[in-house]
Specification:
With about 290 residues, the chain is of the alpha/beta class. The chain folds into two domains: about 5-165, Orthogonal Bundle (Multidrug-efflux Transporter Regulator, Chain: A, Domain 2); about 170-290, Rossmann fold (3-Layer(aba) Sandwich). It has helices at about 5-15, 15-25, 45-60, 65, 70-85, 90-100, 105-120, 120-140, 145-165, 190-200, 220-225, 245-255, 265-270, 285-290, and strands at about 5, 35, 40-45, 175-180, 205-210, 230-235, 260, 275-280.
Length: about 290
């Protein structure tokens, strides 16, 4: 059974620690356990309960009324909200619960509902990527571990790959050729995969090379494939070279190509981008950059 500190519970649920303490004192909701040294902690069951309480409270039900509900009534009320609304915050809460408890069935139900209501692209744009950003915060604060991140990334990756496999790319006079890759040290490829889906949906040809690719290998590949664009994402600092220096080298090695780059590290270096490099951190910027 996992144990969560009040700070971890705050990060996972979005309920401020101060608010949580007030709820505990006034309404006898979610009384914490205590260690031998009197440090409060919460269990999996308590975290699940708090996520449901937060969902109801954000949807207009007063905490005094929530405190009167039995566990069965609370679960029923939450289920009804999820069935009748498409609010992104609710869906993100559901995904967080599925991640924390390794609940693949709940993940599938939540994603299927979102895709049905929004369509695949909008579901990923408005749900999955905000959820992954939230996951990044949870990772940094220690609220989730490697197993959680790997579990949820695998499920999302599988969804994107199924969608890509279902695509039929019909080229036309506006079709461009792209090489998609992540340089050495970059391993999180969900955004790169989704970019492949977007490009193929707009009838472009994509050579997908995945994560942690030595850039020197690109030279021979570009001679063979003859792309119009290189596209990559830079989310973590590089080990042996600064991001601006890396982009300058990439630009010098491939002066005849347009280089599209996104991610947090690229954004920090946006004032130092070479002339043939363009920042693309969303679908809108991507499509604008390629005309």
């Amino acid at each position: 059974m996992a144990q969560y500190s009040i700070k971890e519970v705050e990060n996972l649920s979005g309920v401020k620690a101060h608010t949580l303490r007030i709820w505990e004192q006034r309404y006898d909701i979610l009384k914490p356990h205590r260690t031998d040294t009197n440090i409060r902690y919460y269990t999996d069951e308590q975290l699940r309960l708090l996520l449901n309480i937060g969902t109801l409270n954000r949807n207009g039900l007063k905490i005094s009324k929530i405190a009167e509900l039995s566990e069965a009534e609370l679960n029923e009320a939450v289920a009804k909200i999820h069935e009748t609304t498409g609010q992104t915050d609710l869906l993100i809460d559901a995904l967080i619960q599925s991640m924390i408890h390794f609940d693949e069935k709940r993940f599938e139900k939540t994603i299927a509902s979102a895709i049905l209501k929004m369509g695949f692209e909008e579901a990923f744009d408005k749900l999955i990527f905000p959820f992954m950003n939230r996951t990044g915060v949870l990772w940094v604060t220690g609220a989730i571990n490697v197993a959680h991140e790997h579990f949820i990334s695998h499920l999302i990756r599988r969804k994107i790959k199924v969608a890509i496999d279902a695509q039929l790319v019909e080229t036309n006079p506006k079709t461009k050729k792209f090489i998609l890759f992540l340089p050495e040290g970059e391993t999180h490829e969900l955004l790169l995969l989704f970019t492949e889906y977007i490009l193929r949906a707009h009838h472009h040809q994509v050579l997908y090379l995945g994560s942690s690719l030595p850039v020197n290998d690109l030279k021979e590949i570009t001679r063979s494939f003859e792309p119009d664009y290189l596209l990559t994402y830079l989310t973590v600092p590089m080990a042996d070279i600064s991001i601006p220096s890396f982009l300058q080298k990439l630009s010098a090695d491939f002066p005849g190509l347009q280089i599209l780059v996104g991610g947090a590290q690229a954004t920090l270096a946006k004032e130092e981008l070479p002339a043939n490099c363009h920042l693309v951190n969303c679908e809108e910027q991507l499509l604008a950059a390629i005309g």
